[in-house]
Amino acid sequence: MIWALVACEGVEELINANRPPELDERGIIVSADRVAPFDSVTASISATNPVEGPLFYEWSATGGRFIQPADSSLVYWIAPWQGGPYQLTVKVSNNRRSVEASKNIEVVSSAKPLVDIQEPAEDAYFVVNQQIPVEAMAQHENGISWVRLLVSKDGRDSLIQQLDGNAAGFYRFEQLHAYRALVGKATLLVEAQAANPLQTMGNDSLIINIEGIIEGKNEP
Fold first, then answer.
1. Number of domains the chain is built from
2. Cβ neighbours of residue 162 under 8 Å, at least 6 residues apart?
3. Do 95 and 125 sit in the same domain of this protein?
4. Residue 2 domain-assigned?
């Protein structure tokens, strides 16, 4: 009986000796989870060691950089210049095992969306009532909220079509026709809004030519 108790205590001690660190249920705590490029973020993790010995901390991120040293429960991370989602990860280890936790941080870019009208070409010619397909590219580090096509004539802008942002970054507008009020030179304008709290705007424009149709007369 004594031998059995000693054996059980030995097994329990062996199990406890192989237990990983225990992390606070809140995981990684950061000073902010939405920041601007190059902002400094404080990140910390609370952990306890169920066995005797020290704890070791190993931090990593999908972008940006840590201010060294970065091998303790509290570190400082510098956001990168490019906007987008980034993940901070910490691996906490004791002498036997380790456990990991991660935290997502959104870097909000103040840059304007990049917009490029790819069709039609500058100074392209169309005739009245002809459909004018417009293709454009719009991209931003934080994604695009919306893209819209406007046509300008004699200083007046008219909204033709608005599309929701997409992951591909390419947009095709098919609701523009060369109506008579556009005869002459007209300006196509494509605008895009970044999908972040700053809602920065970018645009591209070009000139097109609309020709009227001259109706002929029948000869007697």
1. 2
2. 146, 147, 148, 149
3. no
4. no
Q: What is the CATH number of the domain that holds 29?
A: 2.60.40.10
Are 172 and 147 spatial neighbours (Cβ–Cβ below 8 Å)? no
End-to-end CA distance of the chain: 127
* Tokens linked to 25: 């249920």
Per-residue model confidence as pLDDT tens digits over 63-108 = 999 999 999 999 999 999 989 999 999 999 998 899 999 999 999 9
Domain ranges, residue 166: 114-211
Pairing of strands 74-78, 40-44: antiparallel
DSSP state of 17: H
In order of 33, 76, 171, the CA distances from 68 in angstroms are 21, 8, 44
Task: Please say which residue of 107, 134, 158 terminates a domain.
Answer: 107
Q: What is the pLDDT of residues 191-209, one digit of tens each?
A: 999 999 899 999 999 999 9
What average pLDDT does this structure show over 39-49?
A: 96
CB-based contact 192:144 (threshold 8 Å): yes
Whose tokens are 């059980």? That residue is 8
Distance CA 103, CA 83 (A): 16
